[in-house]
């Protein structure tokens, strides 16, 4: 599968998983807090910091009719008006450059999710290295065309999308200039349950669409993300906050710093463990072969004595004959005097 260069870092099966901390609206409308999130995210070891570029007006219209209200008791945002919610969640555009500059200074790759064409134009002026398409926008074909026309890598969340919708989105992106696409398996519930995450889709998605696949993970903890790497995910995106107790817009399903640090460590650990199909001792295991079981003489014996279950055993270490010869040795005569603790060898026997 083709490797992708995102901001100078390679993404692909031959590289550690690329970890993105999504700030979203967890800045709570404070630039100082946004910059603090960037500082702490960098300390966890993530590779990229992502924000979102929209205004309430670019997302929806300001009406209180039922269509524009969230009426779902299971939703974190139940009872909210869409326009008011997006006002609360948006990252002011004048904050983007200081956030991006801080991220770059800290060694992270900054980029964003645009939600309309004006956001793309704005982000192009900031020279972002890539674009993320959110699940709820993966069917916005005009937006896909606009982003693809930049020629930059696209990371596309696939929440709710059917196979045919994903195919249409990918084809649109490719037809309009995008050569580097990473799909993200995503479940668009907040938080998502492990039972509803279906990460077995990851290898299937990679085969169907012939591109790299990662995970946009809204579950709690790191287990699902770590498991996805074992299935071939090359990129993980998780929402990030300094503390869930701060009650940011997405804080309820966001990672805290110690969790994000564990995610970075454990996803790289499982990536290293994938290796290749292998049987027999690895190079590192060869020194341990001596501690396998083998056949030993366990009592002092004189020439002419007979081997019995009383004086020959299968024990550790492994310097004697292999255990599979044990039954063949019983009843054989010793050809010379030997001491207890002598490893069995064919030269010891007189017949």
SSE layout and pairings?
Blueprint: E1 4-6, E2 9-11, E3 18-22, H1 31-44, E4 48-53, H2 56-59, H3 82-89, H4 93-105, E5 109-114, H5 117-125, E6 131-133, H6 141-148, E7 154-157, H7 163-175, E8 181-186, H8 201-209, E9 212-216, H9 223-230, E10 235-239, H10 257-274, E11 294-297, E12 312-315, H11 326-329, E13 342-343
Parallel strand pairs: 3-4, 3-10, 4-5, 6-7, 7-8, 8-9, 9-10
Antiparallel strand pairs: 1-2, 11-12, 11-13
Protein name: Pseudaminic acid synthase
Domain AFP-like: 294-351
Pfam family, one: SAF
Describe the structure in your own words.
The protein folds into two domains: 15-54 and 90-274, Aldolase class I (TIM Barrel, Alpha-Beta Barrel), CATH 3.20.20; 286-348, Alpha-Beta Complex (Type Iii Antifreeze Protein Isoform Hplc 12). It contains eleven helices and 13 strands. Helix 1 links the parallel strand 3 and strand 4 (48-53). It is an alpha/beta fold and 351 residues long. Helix 1 (31-44) packs parallel to helix 10 and helix 9 (223-230) runs parallel beside helix 10 (257-274).
- Give the rounded overall mean pLDDT: 96
By CATH, the topology of the largest domain is TIM Barrel
| Helix-strand string | EEEHEHHHEHEHEHEHEHEHEEHE
Major sheet description: 8 strands, parallel
CATH class of the largest domain: Alpha Beta
* The number of domains: 2
**Spatial order of the strands forming the largest sheet:** 5-4-3-10-9-8-7-6
Percent range for β-strand residues: 15-25%
Weakly predicted, low-confidence segments: none
Tell me the number of helical segments per DSSP (H or I, 4 or more residues long): 11
Distance between the termini: 60 Å
GO molecular function: N-acylneuraminate-9-phosphate synthase activity
Domain AFP-like: 294-351
Protein name: Pseudaminic acid synthase
Organism: Schinkia azotoformans LMG 9581
């Amino acid at each position: 599968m083709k490797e992708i260069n995102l901001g100078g870092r390679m993404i692909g099966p031959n590289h550690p998983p690329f970890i993105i901390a999504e700030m979203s609206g967890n800045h709570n409308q404070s630039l100082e807090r946004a910059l603090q999130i960037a500082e702490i995210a960098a300390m966890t070891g993530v590779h990229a910091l992502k924000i979102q570029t929209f205004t309430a007006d670019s997302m929806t219209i300001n009406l209180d009719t039922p269509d524009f209200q969230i009426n779902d008791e299971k939703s974190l945002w139940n009872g909210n008006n869409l326009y008011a919610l997006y006002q609360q969640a948006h990252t002011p555009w004048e904050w983007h450059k200081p956030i991006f500059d801080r991220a770059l200074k800290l060694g992270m790759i900054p980029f964003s999710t645009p939600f309309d064409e004006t956001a793309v134009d704005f982000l192009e002026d900031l020279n972002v290295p890539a674009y993320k398409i959110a699940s709820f926008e993966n069917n916005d074909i005009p937006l896909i065309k606009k982003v693809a026309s930049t020629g930059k890598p696209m990371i596309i969340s696939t929440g709710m999308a059917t196979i045919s919708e994903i195919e249409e989105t990918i084809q649109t992106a490719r037809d309009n200039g995008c050569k580097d696409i990473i799909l993200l398996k995503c479940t668009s519930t907040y938080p998502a349950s492990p039972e509803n995450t279906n990460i077995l889709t990851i290898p299937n998605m990679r085969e169907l669409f012939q591109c790299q696949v990662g995970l946009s993970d809204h579950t709690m903890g790191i287990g699902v993300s770590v498991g996805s790497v074992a299935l071939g995910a090359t990129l993980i995106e998780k929402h990030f906050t300094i503390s869930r107790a701060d009650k940011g817009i997405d804080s309820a399903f966001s990672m805290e710093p110690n969790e994000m640090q564990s995610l970075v460590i454990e996803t790289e650990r499982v990536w290293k463990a994938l290796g290749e199909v292998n049987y027999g001792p690895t190079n590192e295991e060869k020194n341990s072969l001596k501690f396998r079981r083998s056949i030993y003489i366990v009592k002092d014996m004189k020439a002419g004595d007979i081997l019995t279950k009383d004086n020959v055993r299968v024990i550790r270490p492994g310097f004697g004959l292999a255990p599979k010869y044990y039954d063949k040795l019983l009843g054989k005569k010793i050809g010379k005097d030997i001491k207890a603790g002598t490893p069995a060898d064919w030269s010891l026997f007189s017949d």
